[in-house]
Amino acid sequence: MSRTVIPFGPQHPVLPEPVHLDLVVEDEKVIEARPSIGFIHRGLEKLVEKKDYVEFVYVAERVCGICSFIHGQTYCQAIETIMDVKVPPRALYLRTVWGELSRIHSHLLWLGLMADAMGFESLFMHSWRVREKILNIIEATTGGRVIFGSCKIGGVRRDIEADAITRILKEIDEIEKDMRGITKVFLDDHSVKARLCGVGVLSKQDAYDLGCVGPMLRASGVSQDMRRLGYAAFSDIPVEPITRTEGDSYARCAVRCEELFQSVRIIRTALAKIPGGEIAIKVTGNPNGETITRTEQPRGEVIYHIKANATKNLQRFRVRTPTFANLPAMLSILPGCDLADVPVIVLTIDPCISCTER
Amino acid sequence: MSYFSMSKLALKWVFTTPATTSYPFEPRIEIDGSRGWLVFTDDDCVYCNVCAKKCPTGALQVIRAEKTVTLDRLSCITCGCCVEVCPKDSLKLSSGHGTPQVTKGRESYQRKEG
């Protein structure tokens, strides 16, 4: 059987973002996948030379359009570590709540895209309908739908008042009920299982060796979650990583479904325990030093490396995004799969090419 | 494993009004606290230039000699930085989103005297 090379992407109906794969196929089986990225490099890391370290929060938030809040939060945490700033506890709790809301909205978006990739259009619509309710909460509390703009060095910009907390808790109950209906279809439906079970299996050892992060790693049975490092309010709110052992596309979908409810629990706990007081402290001076900060984004662990030299502009800013860490694993599970399963496998890593290229 | 697990959800929505609205015939409901359209509440502006200095995108410009503030709406990212730093509360972010900007250029605002 002769081999054929089929180009997949950068424009493709199931791809939310541009990644290009040259798929070497023999009949309908993929033999090799050769990736190329670089379509949307924006040079955000270079911008540290133009924007001062306070303004750069806005740039850091725009590294990704979905996990924007956690990017901003990680950047602020890194600067706060260098400058030895003690963030007020209320701000830490608010960051936790917004971070988890952002996780729910990212996972619901992914579930919708997954349903769309499988051709399950109605399920896609329902996932995004529920996501819209989360976006409304985010907009009411931070002012933005996807670019929150509420995190700043030394704390947060906005507070959530007591009556708003009551309202959010009520809305979260409704949303949880809606999510139960949707995730039941993802987890139990025959057609979904037929499409996902046994597709793109990644063993525990391979997941670990290839440096996977986030739901991709947890679906293969490795219990790792950066929230256990105790950043923000996670030192007070314990998080038990959700793991599966199958390592296939269904397991990755199931991990994200269960994480939705885990995030709901975290939001409830954080809002119940939220302390009073200041939401930000004034930060003066310029940072001087070097640090690495790790946080758990919806897609997995993100690493920020920041180097400052006591001037208002940082010397070096570097981000290792979760998609970058998951790409080698994706390339390792593509050989041997059916051509029709490629969109599903690519989507199960939850690719965010904008983050990866920055 | 179950068959037709979507049926219950689909049936419920057959008898429910759509979750979507028929925008633009039906205007979007504004959410309180949303960072929308930057609005000048004028009168108290002292042209101190702090908003323009702090604006991360350089969308705001203050011309003190002409007592004018200009704004490039296409550069404004509605971050609210100018609103935070304004000592006279001459700026605010309304929860609405205004009309779409279709031409390049700067809008200018002058204080109403008297």
Core attributes:
heterodimer; A: 358 residues; globular; B: alpha+beta; Alpha-Beta Plaits; two-stranded antiparallel sheet; 3 helices
Blueprint of the fold:
The complex is a heterodimer of chains A (358) and B (114).
Chain A: E1 3-8, E2 20-26, E3 29-36, H1 56-61, H2 68-83, H3 89-118, H4 121-142, E4 151-152, E5 155-156, H5 162-188, H6 190-196, H7 204-209, H8 214-218, H9 249-273, E6 288-297, E7 300-309, E8 316-320, H10 322-333, H11 342-348, H12 353-357
Antiparallel strand pairs in A: 1-2, 2-3, 4-5, 6-7, 7-8
Helix pairs in contact in A: 2-3, 3-4, 3-9, 3-11, 4-5, 5-9
Chain B: H1 7-14, E1 38-40, H2 50-54, E2 60-63, E3 68-71, H3 81-85, E4 91-93, E5 107-110
Antiparallel strand pairs in B: 1-4, 2-3, 3-5
Task: Walk me through the structure.
- The complex is a heterodimer of chains A (358) and B (114).
- In chain A, 47% of the residues lie in helices and 14% in strands.
- Chain A is of the alpha+beta class.
- In chain A, the strands form three sheets. In chain A, strands 1-2-3 form a three-stranded antiparallel beta sheet, with no helix packed on it.
- The mean pLDDT of chain A is 89.
- Chain A has helices at residues 56-61, 68-83, 89-118, 121-142, 162-188, 190-196, 204-209, 214-218, 249-273, 322-333, 342-348, 353-357, and strands at 3-8, 20-26, 29-36, 151-152, 155-156, 288-297, 300-309, 316-320.
- In chain A, helix 3 packs antiparallel against helix 4 (121-142).
- By secondary structure, chain B is α+β, with helices and mostly antiparallel strands.
- Chain B has one domain: Alpha-Beta Plaits (2-Layer Sandwich), CATH 3.30.70.
- Chain B has three helices and five strands, in the order αβαββαββ.
- In chain B, the strands form two sheets. In chain B, strands 2-3-5 form a three-stranded antiparallel beta sheet.
- The longest helix of chain B has 8 residues, at 7-14.
- The radius of gyration of chain B is 21 Å and the shape is elongated.
- The mean pLDDT of chain B is 83.
- Classes of the chains: A alpha+beta (358), B alpha+beta (114).
- Chain A binds chain B through residues 51, 55, 58, 120, 122-123, 126, 129, 132, 136, 139-144, 147, 149, 157-158, 181-182, 184-185, 188-190, 193, and chain B through 1-3, 5-6, 8-10, 13, 19, 31-35, 56, 77-80, 84, 93.
